[in-house]
Amino acid sequence: MNFDSKVAVVTGAASGIGEATAKRLAQYGAKVVIADIDEDGAKRVAAEIAHSGGEAAFRRTDIAREDDVTSLIAFAVSTYGGLHLAHNNAAIGHTPTPLHELDTATFDTVTGIGLRGTFFCMRAEIAHMIGHGGGAIVNTASGAGLKAAAGLHAYVATKHAVVGLTRNAGLDYAPYDIRVNAVAPGPIKTPQMASYPQELQDQWARLIPMGRMGTTEEVADVVTFLLSDAAGFVTGTTLEIDGAYVQSSTQ
Ligand SMILES: NC(=O)c1ccc[n+]([C@@H]2O[C@H](COP(=O)([O-])OP(=O)(O)OC[C@H]3O[C@@H](n4cnc5c(N)ncnc54)[C@H](O)[C@@H]3O)[C@@H](O)[C@H]2O)c1
């Protein structure tokens, strides 16, 4: 994997899956812009990348804000001279709630970040890439983008929509050498996941045919593959990273 001379933006890179991808991309030579609302976390990740000999810069970005996203892409281009790769990863979940009791504010916040925010990022990235020789984009969907998840109506709608946006953009931008793919992680052992009681984690792990949760590095490895030239003929697809979770009948 070689991303020398490539510039990458990773949203939600202050923690979890985004952090792992930012570190992998930097390890393989990319200059990485860490976009997040969590300044402390993002600065820690940028410092750790620099400490390992990589190059990264932090840009505070709320992806739900159109102007923040426009500034993010302008920042990447002015700081590192271009934009070739993007991992649109930031999103939030919500407490499982019956649909008829789901309040509008929660629906708007969850879709506003995970769907509208992903759209804002894709639009700004593609607008740059289309005039500069193409690029590669990976969106973070979820197993919840491919099947139902009880009570998670806003999150499931968001992630299904991310799969749809990915598919459509893959189609429309193939002639411009812009590849757009998504990953659909199953339960992944992020710091937040690891903070739950072990008994609960074991219960979730038993729902996965492989009998364990995935790691953030396992997701980052697939994201970097999809962003790389090794996936040069892959676009519009959503790749499950879930130990056969979606393929199983259990939930
Ligand atoms: N962890 C899992 O099991 C799992 C499974 C499937 C999909 N996902 C998806 O993976 C992605 C990353 O999740 P994670 O588990 O690493 O979570 P995380 O909470 O560890 O990281 C999410 C990051 O996004 C940032 N963020 C939140 N709102 C933002 C906004 N408006 N603008 C910019 N940044 C924002 C947070 O500050 C945080 O740093 C999400 O899209 C999530 O839906 C996670």
TrEMBL record:
InterPro entries: NAD(P)-bd_dom_sf, Sc_DH/Rdtase_CS, SDR_fam. GO terms for molecular function: oxidoreductase activity. Pfam families: adh_short_C2. Keywords: Oxidoreductase. Belongs to the short-chain dehydrogenases/reductases (SDR) family. NCBIfam families: PRK07231.1. PANTHER family: DEHYDROGENASES, SHORT CHAIN, ESTRADIOL 17-BETA-DEHYDROGENASE 8-RELATED. This is Short chain dehydrogenase. It comes from Mycolicibacterium duvalii. The lineage of its organism: Bacteria, Bacillati, Actinomycetota, Actinomycetes, Mycobacteriales.
